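Q: I'm writing up a methods section and want to include an example of the input and output format. Could you take the sequence below and give the corresponding predicted structure tokens, formatted cleanly so I can copy it straight into the document?
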Amino acid sequence: MNFGLSEEQRAIVDTTRAFVENELYPHEREVERTGRLEMDLIKELQQKAMAAGLYAANMPAEVGGAGLDTLSWLLYEKELGKANYALHWTCVARPSNILLAGTDEQKEKYLYPCIRGETWDCLAMTEPGAGSDLRGMKATAMQDGDDFVLNGTKHFISHADIAGFAIVFMASGEEDSPRGKRKKITAFFVDKGTKGFAVRDGYRNVSHRGYTNAVLEFDDCRLPKEQVLGEVHKGFEVANSWLGATRLQVASTCLGRAERALAHAIEYAAQRQQFGQQIGKFQGVSFKLADMAMELKGAELLTREAGWKYDQGTVTDEDMAMAKLKATEVLAFIADEAIQIHGGMGLMDDLPLERIWRDARVERIWEGTSEIQRHIISRALLRAVGG
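A: Here is the clean output for your methods example:
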């Protein structure tokens, strides 16, 4: 593995960083204070992101994306991750790569409009009673002739309010397993406005202001078989084939925020005077900075290695779990220590630290909790010796 960046990768980092600092940072305070991201601003920043070549850059070149390799994509995600989440996710959208699993007709209807910035997708798996245990989902899709009838509720569905459609995973049957009956899962495209499909306001959230969540309700929502994504009863196979790298995406955006928080802490420690000298000269502060920098580098190396291995075809679930676990927990640690170094000022909204601190909490929950990541890692270790 080459730890240096190529000229192209340095250009990606520089371009993305400049866009984030010049176009996204100026709007952070307003979004944080109002909790809203106005559509006029979204459209304005979308156009600027497209002009800079940053919109839908996660997508392959053949469908209109930037065609980045995984490591380059993660470097891009790290820079975007430094900004308010609603700003970078909505205005510099990265459509879910699960859309690439669709048929040609489905790509025309769903994928390409997302790449062109005409709409957004949202992914619906989680239910009030099924989070980490997705096989426990109760929302159903029952076949009725050539149609499927969907019933049930999904929640915590990010940006469903502006999405033109949802990619919904529903229990579509049962099968026998060594542990008894388990649910078969099928994935569907569900257009907003479909009869029996409603999008309700979600919950007020301490994290990611301006980035909304919603409740999706299905009441005898009838879909033709053409709306199935992948194969019937093969929803998990579709998800596992296309969504694995999302944990690396979470890791990378966390690295960006951690780096921003550390930079603020270093600058403040060098400028703030107490007892006649810079506070950075006190071991109580200087050792914090050393630990923060060391932990950040460790998390970045794990994430970069996993990205490199992804492109080599050698990445494992364990690799991605380690990267996600380490980066999310390091972000929480660095955000907390940065505030401690700043004292009371760290909690004021004059600085981004209180936002980074608040936003850090959800990262250890979504895309697989820290406990799930530890389960994946420990299971791999034990399996190697017959455990």
